[in-house]
Amino acid sequence: MQPFENVREQLLKAGIAAVAVNRYIVELREHLADLTAKERASETADANGRARNLMGSDAQLVQAMIDKTPRSLATRAPWAVFALLPVVALIAIIWAVANVMMHVLGPVHAAWPEGVPDTYTGLIATVSFGTSYLLGPALAAGCIALAVRQRVSSAWVWVGLSLIALFGGLLGIHMNIFPPYSGPHGYRPGGTTFSAVHLVIMDGRVNPSATLALAAARATVLFAVAALAYRVLRTHFRMRIQD
């Protein structure tokens, strides 16, 4: 194990930002190398051990860093970093994409009685896939990476992953194709609409229970994958420190 890894772990768990911790560890290792070189030059036995003792104990080095460095935002306000920020970002991104799509497709949407022109099919499919299947996992991955990097151990990480899964499974830019319908509820011509929720259409109308079931299934899968990834990465880093 590299020198001062225990110091790194204690500082991260104390809430010091990872960037500041990494810089501090580099400085400590450089200082240790200089002291070791001096001890070797003086032909002192066990130059490495003596140089390390001259720098002070791990507890002293950790406290010195804590005394002069503020804690990271992820530690001071985990509710904001892991729960509020990802949800706000997800909704804001989908809102922005929806506005762009309205400006692009709005002027020509009325001229689609026979279906969506091939010119726009690829664009709509790409945007729908990105907002529905990539955005949520990307935000979850960002939360996991930050939590693992900063050694954050907080229930807010799990709350954040749950909220990302919930909103990520529910929201996205979707094109809904309504086929012509003729039945007990009357006749309705077919057409296309856009929504922020993946609607399930049955008998020419939206089926709320099926729509919610689909959103719940997607949210469950996203949360399960994110939770597994988080647990595996946390275990990996803990085992690496113990080696």
Q: What's the arrangement of secondary structure elements?
A:
Layout: H1 5-13, H2 18-41, H3 47-55, H4 58-68, H5 73-76, H6 78-109, H7 118-149, H8 155-170, E1 171-178, E2 181-183, E3 186-188, E4 191-197, E5 201-202, E6 205-206, H9 208-242
Antiparallel strand pairs: 1-4, 2-3, 5-6
What does this structure look like?
This protein is 71% helix and 10% strand. The model has no long low-confidence stretch (mean pLDDT 82). The chain has a two-stranded antiparallel sheet. The chain has nine helices and six strands. The longest helix is centred in the last third of the chain and has 35 residues, at 208-242. It folds into two domains: 5-71, no CATH class; 74-242, no CATH class.
Short description:
The chain is mainly alpha-helical and 243 residues long.
Q: How far is the first residue's CA from the last residue's CA?
A: 7 Å
Q: Extract low-pLDDT stretches.
A: none
Secondary-structure element pattern, one letter each: HHHHHHHHEEEEEEH
The tally of domains stands at 2
Tell me the total number of β-strands. Answer: 6
Relevant terms:
two-stranded antiparallel sheet, 2 domains, 243 residues
